[in-house]
Amino acid sequence: xxxxxxxxxxxxxxxxxxxxxxxxxxxxxxxxxxxxxxxxxxxxxxxxxxxxxxxxxxxxxxxxxxxxxxxxxxxxxxxxxxxxxxxxxxxxxxxxxxxxxxxxxxxxxxxxxxxxxxxxxxxxxxxxxxxxxxxxxxxxxxxxxxxxxxxxxxxxxxxxxxxxxxxxxxxxxxx
Length: 175
Hints:
By secondary structure, this protein is α+β, with helices and mostly antiparallel strands.
């Protein structure tokens, strides 16, 4: 079984570490050989095992995969886009729902709860009757908009080609 580690390192003691990458190690021999190679570089290097489980990067238990599953979801990415367009301002729940076509009230609520829980958005409630609930992206949430914009641009550029490929596959009977 593979154990997944984060490789962290830094040249200056007590200055914290930067994540240098992730890797999977198949056994104690592999781990010892890897530690020897890392130590030869002269920098302070450590491997930090993901707590509580073994997880290869594509394993559903991998923390990176779980985060990508959440932020890459259709409604999460659309919500981030709409909130980014309003930044640094806020949007009320009803306005968000108007700006995201086809989203149900429940799905928007679940999506926003997830974004708030992950620290990507902030929720502010005005003590009125009924309460006015406002959302805005945090700095972390705003940092996600750039990568999502690149993915949207790729999709817009390649949608026609993907649609042609799907039609062709349907015509020749491949699903």
